[in-house]
Design goal:
Elements: H1 2-25, H2 45-48, H3 52-56, E1 59-61, E2 75-80, E3 84-95, E4 104-115, H4 121-129, E5 140-144, E6 151-157, E7 166-175, E8 178-188, H5 201-221
Antiparallel strand pairs: 1-3, 2-3, 3-4, 4-8, 5-6, 6-7, 7-8
Length: 225
């Protein structure tokens, strides 16, 4: 009997040691592994952002007018943190045929986030559906967008169809634990002298979807570089 107890004690001791090793190495961790779907961090999201759809619509990147990094165009930033990696790219455009006598403003704001600790899936759809619930002077329409990532949503103003001089469109994409948002904001005053019409919300949506598809493909390919 004493030999049996000695053997049992050895098994218990070995199990305790193995359990300590697993805890130390995260073998028993309850945290799920992040599904980054092959995406990788880049310090310059602008370098991977596809601007071709906008250039084909006769928008060109504005020339730099300042001397500091804050005045550069496009502007990019990024940060790698313990819980997530963030990347941003802001581009200021000007439309072909627009004179300097009036006011016009066209911006593209892109963000990409790699979530390393928390799965963004449960809250992602509601992030965009919430636009329909806003009690403001502007009403929004939210539509699902098939064919991009695991899920994607398009947000447009309901009055965009009747507004010829401005547009505001958001495209949000989730692919695994990667989230991406592309926001287009444009306005041209009647005195801007533009010989080109502002794109409709539908046209902007097409540009954003085309750009996002290529941009996300580049972000996945950057892992191998």
């Amino acid at each position: 009997m004493s030999g049996w107890l000695w053997a049992l004690g050895g098994v218990v001791a070995a199990s305790a040691i193995w359990g300590s090793v697993l805890f130390a190495t995260g073998g028993f961790s309850s945290e799920p592994s992040p599904d980054l779907a092959g995406y990788a961090y880049t310090g310059d999201l602008c370098a991977d952002t596809s601007l071709t759809p906008f250039e084909n619509a006769h928008f060109r990147t504005k020339a730099n007018t300042g001397t500091t990094s804050k005045d550069t165009n496009p502007q990019h930033s990024g940060a790698q943190l313990a819980s997530l990696d963030t990347m941003t790219c802001n581009v200021s455009f000007e439309q072909d045929g627009t004179s300097s006598s009036g006011y016009s403003s066209t911006w593209l704001y892109n963000t990409a986030t790699l979530h390393r600790k928390t799965d963004p899936t449960p809250e992602f759809a509601d992030t965009y559906r919430s636009y329909e619930k806003q009690d403001t002077s502007v009403d929004y329409r939210v539509e699902t967008v098939p064919g991009i990532g695991d899920e994607a949503y398009l947000v447009t103003r309901k009055d965009d169809a009747s507004t010829s001089n401005s547009s505001y469109v958001i495209l949000g994409v989730r692919d695994g634990w990667m989230t991406y948002q592309s926001t287009w904001s444009s306005y041209a005053s009647s005195s801007s002298g533009s010989t080109s019409k502002q794109p409709t919300a539908t046209e902007v949506a097409t540009m954003l979807k085309t750009s996002a598809t290529e941009t996300l493909k580049r972000l996945q390919n950057s892992r191998a570089q």
